């Protein structure tokens, strides 16, 4: 009985989202897919920065402090290799997130174009400019644009915060490896 109640509550909660997506047309579904992928990558980066990187960073610091030689060319090459590996791991997927974020407004504009085509199609077929007939096309034109801009703004904010956190983590590791015992 509880399972059925949960299902109906979820179904009722999804109706407004489904209505919104249907009003925006097919482009809005593509935009939702791009946003979902970008946010999954953002979550993956946050989890890496919070959970995995501190352990790896601590491991490198312990290995560096356990070394007797810190000044030879070989020791410096090892340190630079670790820093390069840290940089690669920290920056992984950040460019892809940036690309996905920059696609969002473009998909919104594609929704605008398809919505306007729909409006002009109604005008051409019906031979009039009846506002009631054009309303669905105008909705198709405005909703994807708004959604694309909102998604891009949120994605830009998330990307810039992630990039800044990655840079700070990299600098912190470099400083820890620079210090002597």
From TrEMBL:
GO terms for cellular component: plasma membrane. It holds the Pfam family MotA_ExbB. Keywords: Cell membrane, Membrane, Protein transport, Transmembrane, Transmembrane helix, Transport. Residues 69-170 form the MotA/TolQ/ExbB proton channel domain. It is a multi-pass membrane protein. GO terms for biological process: protein import. It is found in: Cell membrane; Membrane. The chain crosses the membrane at residues 27-51, 99-120, 140-158. Belongs to the exbB/tolQ family. This is MotA/TolQ/ExbB proton channel family protein. It comes from Vibrio eleionomae.
């Amino acid at each position: 009985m509880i399972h059925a109640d949960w299902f109906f509550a979820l179904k009722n909660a999804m109706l407004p989202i489904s209505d919104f997506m249907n009003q925006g047309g097919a482009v809005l579904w593509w935009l939702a897919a791009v946003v979902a992928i970008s946010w999954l990558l953002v979550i993956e980066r946050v989890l890496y920065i919070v959970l995995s990187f501190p352990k790896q960073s601590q491991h490198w610091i312990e290995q560096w402090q356990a070394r007797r030689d810190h000044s030879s060319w070989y020791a410096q090459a090892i340190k630079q290799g670790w820093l390069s590996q840290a940089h690669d791991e920290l920056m992984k997927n950040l460019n892809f997130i940036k690309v996905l974020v920059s696609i969002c407004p473009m998909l919104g504009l594609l929704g605008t174009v398809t919505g306007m085509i729909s409006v002009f199609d109604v005008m051409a077929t019906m031979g009039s400019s009846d506002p009631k007939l054009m309303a669905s096309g105008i909705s198709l034109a405005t909703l994807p644009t708004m959604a694309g801009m909102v998604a891009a703004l949120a994605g830009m904010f998330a990307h810039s915060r992630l990039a800044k956190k990655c840079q700070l983590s990299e600098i912190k590791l470099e400083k820890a490896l620079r210090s002597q015992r």
